[in-house]
């Protein structure tokens, strides 16, 4: 991995207003592709997938007046790279009332990269119950998949090199909304 | 992250809190139909038990299995241990078998410290002599936090044979680290010398249970073995339970919200009456259930990352 | 017999002079063929005398033998050691003490003086044949059940009285057994934290208090082994002030180490009596300087690896100490050579009634002496010890002073810091 450098080598991919527009668009797409979000549950993957799922639910409510159930699904205990890093603290798993059996689950995450997080999420979901179908919504798809996984809803496709990293900031966690691409200039 | 859990003193406040938080997540997962997690697949946990303690061994075994670790039970009975193999030779055997963690229960204080010097894996103390039992303290702290919502500022009495109790030592260390105020209660013969200096300067000592009870949020009763009478620690079981046993009359002196704990196994009629043990204030059954979650948290935090 | 000339040696740290050794004695002039030893910078001390050594033979030759223990002693600057009676079989008969004495003569590295058991089998029930051991070839004068206390007060009284017939002395291991059942370490803050059964100071002090009263009552000599507590020092101080004929020893480890070391649970720090607190160490040091404690004795206690590489509670108590005693005392007392000679050579020889040792290097005296390089520093490496055992608590510690040479009746047992045989 390249060393992330100072801001000199970073550029903003999505500004706050871009990000809001992208969330709005995904919300509309979900409504379209799920026949008005009937029988649908949003599950955010901690950390930043959780506020994204909540924003999507809020936008869907604003557009259509529908209250779509939202929860979180922590995938830490299902990761395949635990031994490569220091032990990670667990995130919260909170399934909405009524569970996920027989419902359409939309997994929500900030960045789609290797696909391993989504693989772990599918495993975790499998131990939680049996949804009728599973979809995936991501804010950014940066490519470089290592598993046969694709997203159903993509906010923005960003071609990246392996040396670069994508930093998503959300107000709820980071105090501001933006997406940045950093590093990689030395490659 | 720490490598071993030999003593509750190995845990600073952030680490201890992380374990309790993790135990909370583990407990939530225990409620679903599929209880098993793939997290420790391919890792080997050895339960090395030099003392009979079915409850503790089963609790660790359940914790390791729910995390998909391979579990090897190595009991002192019917093994080379009873033929006089030294702890060091056993350690080298476990090392050769590739144990990622060894959970050890041993009658000699400090055996986990010795073992940690001889194996590469993590060592978890499951009770050593009259020294410590840190996972018991973790499950006790978890139980208190679940019932009462906090640990900081909690007033906890630990009552009975503190001198011979590994549970008491670990609880004093952990609870003090997490901000609780501990009072040790028992006959002077069963309170070890210099206990406050040894464990935590804030620890209080009282020889009068009745005067302590009205101020407590938690009253933890320790098992008292009747054999202690032979060594003149107290004159008779009857006198002991009159002065230090918890019965209904004494329990009524406790505040409304206060809970009664016992690490088990209980000596009903000695340190605790059946009515108290079975009352709604008693957390004794919860403690057992929380034991598995707390031990899952410990195994995950010791083994769930880069070695 | 080779003659030697020690050139430019400092006697007890004072005057520089040449010392000649001729026919095993100190002489005022060396013959022309004398071997010259450059002793510049070296301090000469009378050969050290240890009143408390465990040589383990017969019985535990895997831990130590009379020969390996003797070599260890010579390397530590000793010319005489007193071998404790807790062998297997116990040295409670003339036969066993003569065997040990003979093995010592055969090794020829130090004078090995057996100590006889006070009671048969160290069992504390019945007096051993003290007179037979006294009149044996081993000429035993010190009797001790060391490792066990002579706890029965009537038996202790009888022993003190009985040995007056041949000017013997009882060396007591002061430990009230009922107060130390299962004891693992000093009772205090650290034992409480570690959950190890405590060995309270009062268990030692109570026995010393009782024994000085008994010795006073029957007018006998009492020697107290390995004094370890500040309270014991006070009991001894009062007894000595009253004129009780009591002497006392302290070990090097009790002058340097504290109970905090047990926190590692490494039984290399397990010893009986146990390591005490820093304030005890301070009191023992002061008492040694003052003379309330008369001598330093090693309590050299070799143990096989398997008896130490185990759980604390299962380990045998004891530390090897012959090769590190003088460096430890040097680090504690500093270069007070006359005081060191008094506490490690002259007084122990006098207590034991041992002639030919503990005498200053005057012309005509037997040449029992050791040469020390006080400027040297040594990192203790257990694998370099001559003892058959490795249980030193000083592994990795840097200690001052190096024993360069030791002479036993004019014959070098150590030269250039190495054992001659």
UniProtKB/TrEMBL annotation, chain A:
Record field: catalytic activity: UMP + diphosphate = 5-phospho-alpha-D-ribose 1-diphosphate + uracil
Start and end residues of each Phosphoribosyltransferase domain: 15-159
Motif (PRPP-binding): 105-117
Keyword 4Fe-4S: no
Pfam families per record: Pribosyltran
Gene3D superfamilies, A to Z: 3.40.50.2020
Keywords of this entry: Glycosyltransferase, Transcription, Transcription regulation, Transferase
Gene Ontology terms for molecular function: uracil phosphoribosyltransferase activity
Enzyme Commission no: 2.4.2.9
Keyword Aminoacyl-tRNA synthetase found: no
PANTHER family: BIFUNCTIONAL PROTEIN PYRR (PTHR11608)
Family the entry assigns: Belongs to the purine/pyrimidine phosphoribosyltransferase family. PyrR subfamily.
Function, as annotated: Also displays a weak uracil phosphoribosyltransferase activity which is not physiologically significant. Regulates the transcription of the pyrimidine nucleotide (pyr) operon in response to exogenous pyrimidines.
Protein name: Bifunctional protein PyrR
Organism: Paractinoplanes pyxinae
UniProtKB/TrEMBL annotation, chain B:
Binding-site residues, L-aspartate: 83, 166, 223
E.C. number: 2.1.3.2
Associated pathway: Pyrimidine metabolism; UMP biosynthesis via de novo pathway; (S)-dihydroorotate from bicarbonate: step 2/3
Aspartate/ornithine carbamoyltransferase Asp/Orn-binding domain: residues covered: 152-302
TM helices/strands, residue ranges: none
Catalytic activity: carbamoyl phosphate + L-aspartate = N-carbamoyl-L-aspartate + phosphate + H(+)
Keyword Cytoplasm among record annotations: no
UniProt domain Aspartate/ornithine carbamoyltransferase carbamoyl-P binding: residue ranges: 3-145
Pfam families tied to this protein: OTCace, OTCace_N
Binding site for carbamoyl phosphate: 55-56, 105, 133, 136, 264-265
Superkingdom of the organism of origin: Bacteria
SUPFAM superfamilies listed in its UniProt record: Aspartate/ornithine carbamoyltransferase
Gene3D superfamilies (alphabetical): Aspartate/ornithine carbamoyltransferase
The keyword Acyltransferase appears for this protein: no
Keywords: Pyrimidine biosynthesis, Transferase
GO molecular function, one term: aspartate carbamoyltransferase activity
Annotated function: Catalyzes the condensation of carbamoyl phosphate and aspartate to form carbamoyl aspartate and inorganic phosphate, the committed step in the de novo pyrimidine nucleotide biosynthesis pathway.
Family per record: Belongs to the aspartate/ornithine carbamoyltransferase superfamily. ATCase family.
Summary of subunit composition and partner proteins: Heterododecamer (2C3:3R2) of six catalytic PyrB chains organized as two trimers (C3), and six regulatory PyrI chains organized as three dimers (R2).
PANTHER family (UniProt xref): ASPARTATE CARBAMOYLTRANSFERASE, ORNITHINE CARBAMOYLTRANSFERASE, MITOCHONDRIAL
Name of protein: Aspartate carbamoyltransferase
Organism: Paractinoplanes pyxinae
From TrEMBL, chain C:
Gene3D superfamilies: Metal-dependent hydrolases (3.20.20.140), Urease, subunit C, domain 1 (2.30.40.10)
UniProt pathway annotation: Pyrimidine metabolism; UMP biosynthesis via de novo pathway; (S)-dihydroorotate from bicarbonate: step 3/3
EC primary class: hydrolase
Binding site for Zn(2+) 2: 146, 173, 226
Keyword field: Hydrolase, Metal-binding, Pyrimidine biosynthesis, Zinc
Pfam families: DHOase (PF12890)
Positions that bind Zn(2+) 1: 52, 54, 146, 299
Catalyzed reactions per annotation: (S)-dihydroorotate + H2O = N-carbamoyl-L-aspartate + H(+)
GO MF annotation terms: dihydroorotase activity
Residues forming coiled coils: none
Active site feature: 299
Co-factor remark: Binds 2 Zn(2+) ions per subunit.
HAMAP family membership: PyrC_classI_B
PANTHER family linked to this entry: ALLANTOINASE
Protein name from the UniProt record: Dihydroorotase
Organism: Paractinoplanes pyxinae
């Amino acid at each position: 991995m390249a060393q992330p450098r100072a801001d000199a080598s970073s550029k903003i991919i999505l500004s706050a207003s871009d990000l809001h527009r992208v969330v709005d668009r995904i919300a509309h797409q979900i409504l379209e592709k799920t026949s008005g979000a009937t029988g649908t549950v949003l599950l955010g993957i901690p950390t930043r997938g959780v506020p994204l799922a909540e924003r999507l639910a809020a936008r869907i409510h604003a557009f259509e007046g529908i209250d779509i159930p939202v929860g979180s699904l922590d995938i830490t205990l299902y990761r395949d790279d635990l031994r490569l890093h220091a032990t990670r603290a667990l995130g919260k798993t909170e399934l909405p009332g009524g569970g996920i059996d027989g419902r359409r689950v939309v997994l929500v995450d900030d960045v789609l990269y290797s696909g391993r997080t989504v693989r772990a999420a599918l495993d975790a979901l499998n131990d939680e119950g049996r949804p009728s179908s599973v979809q995936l919504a991501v804010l950014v798809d940066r490519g470089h998949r290592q598993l046969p996984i694709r997203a159903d809803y993509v906010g923005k496709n960003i071609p990246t090199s392996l040396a670069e990293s994508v930093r998503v900031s959300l107000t709820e966690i980071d105090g501001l909304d933006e997406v940045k691409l950093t590093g990689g200039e030395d490659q | 992250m720490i490598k071993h859990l030999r003593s509750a003193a190995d845990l600073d406040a952030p680490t201890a809190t992380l374990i309790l938080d993790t135990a909370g997540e583990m407990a939530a997962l225990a409620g679903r139909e599929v209880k098993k997690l793939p997290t420790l697949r391919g890792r080997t946990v050895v339960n090395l038990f030099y003392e009979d303690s079915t409850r503790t061994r089963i609790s660790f075994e359940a914790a390791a299995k729910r995390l998909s670790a391979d579990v090897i039970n190595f009991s002192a009975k019917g093994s080379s241990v009873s033929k006089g193999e030294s702890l060091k030779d056993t350690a080298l055997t476990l090392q050769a078998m590739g144990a990622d963690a060894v959970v050890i229960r041993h009658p000699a204080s400090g055996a986990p410290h010795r073992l940690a010097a001889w194996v590469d894996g993590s060592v978890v103390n499951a009770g050593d002599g009259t020294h410590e039992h840190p996972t018991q303290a973790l499950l006790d702290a978890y139980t208190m936090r679940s019932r009462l919502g906090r640990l900081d500022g909690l007033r906890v009495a630990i009552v009975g044979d503190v001198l011979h109790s590994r549970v008491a030592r670990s609880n004093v260390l952990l609870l003090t680290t997490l901000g609780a105020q501990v009072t040790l209660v028992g006959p002077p013969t069963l309170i070890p010398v210099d206990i406050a200096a040894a464990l935590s300067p804030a620890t209080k000592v009282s020889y009068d249970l009745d005067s302590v009870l009205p101020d407590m949020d938690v009253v933890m009763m320790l098992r008292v073995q009747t054999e202690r009478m032979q060594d003149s620690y107290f004159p008779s079981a009857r006198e002991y339970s009159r002065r230090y046993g918890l019965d209904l009359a004494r329990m009524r002196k406790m505040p409304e919200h206060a809970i009664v704990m016992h690490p088990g196994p209980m000596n009903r009629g000695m340190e605790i009456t059946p009515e108290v043990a079975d009352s709604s204030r008693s957390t004794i059954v919860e403690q057992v259930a929380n034991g598995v979650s707390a031990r899952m948290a410990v195994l995950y935090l010791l083994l769930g990352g880069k070695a | 017999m080779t003659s030697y000339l020690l050139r430019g040696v400092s006697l007890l740290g004072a005057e520089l002079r040449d010392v000649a050794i001729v026919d095993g004695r100190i002489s005022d002039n060396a013959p022309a063929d004398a071997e010259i030893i450059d002793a510049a910078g070296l301090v000469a001390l009378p050969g050290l005398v240890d009143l408390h050594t465990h040589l383990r033979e017969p019985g535990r030759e895997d831990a130590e033998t009379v020969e390996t223990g003797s070599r260890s002693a010579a390397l530590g600057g000793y010319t005489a050691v007193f071998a404790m009676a807790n062998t297997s079989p116990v040295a409670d008969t003339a036969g066993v003490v003569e065997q040990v004495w003979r093995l010592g003569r055969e090794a020829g590295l130090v004078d090995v003086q057996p100590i006889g058991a006070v009671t048969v089998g160290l069992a504390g029930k019945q007096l051993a044949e003290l007179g037979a051991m006294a009149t044996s070839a081993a000429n035993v004068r010190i009797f001790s059940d060391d490792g066990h206390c002579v706890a029965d007060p009537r038996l202790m009284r009888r022993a003190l009285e009985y040995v007056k017939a041949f000017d013997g002395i009882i060396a007591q291991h002061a430990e009230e057994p009922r107060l130390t059942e299962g004891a693992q370490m000093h009772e205090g803050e650290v034992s409480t934290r570690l959950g190890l059964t405590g060995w309270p100071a009062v268990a030692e002090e109570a026995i010393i208090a009782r024994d000085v009263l008994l010795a006073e009552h029957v007018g006998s000599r009492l020697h107290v082994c390995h004094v370890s507590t500040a309270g014991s020092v006070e009991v001894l101080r009062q007894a000595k002030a009253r004129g009780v004929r009591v002497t006392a020893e302290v070990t090097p480890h009790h002058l340097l180490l504290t109970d905090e070391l047990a926190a590692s649970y490494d039984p290399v720090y397990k010893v009986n009596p146990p390591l005490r607190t820093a304030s005890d160490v301070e009191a023992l040091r002061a008492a040694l300087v003052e003379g309330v404690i008369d001598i330093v004795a090693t309590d050299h206690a070799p143990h096989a690896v398997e008896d130490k590489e185990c759980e604390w509670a299962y380990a045998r108590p004891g530390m090897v100490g012959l090769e590190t005693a003088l460096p430890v005392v040097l680090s504690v007392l500093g270069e007070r050579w006359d005081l060191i000679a008094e506490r490690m050579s002259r007084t122990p020889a006098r207590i034991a009634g041992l002639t030919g040792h503990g005498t200053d290097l005057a012309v005509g005296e037997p040449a029992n002496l050791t040469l020390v390089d006080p400027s040297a520093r040594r990192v203790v490496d257990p694998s370099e010890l001559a003892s058959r055992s490795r249980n030193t608590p000083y592994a990795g510690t840097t200690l001052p002073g190096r024993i360069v040479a030791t002479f036993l009746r004019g014959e070098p047992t150590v030269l250039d810091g190495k054992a001659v045989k």
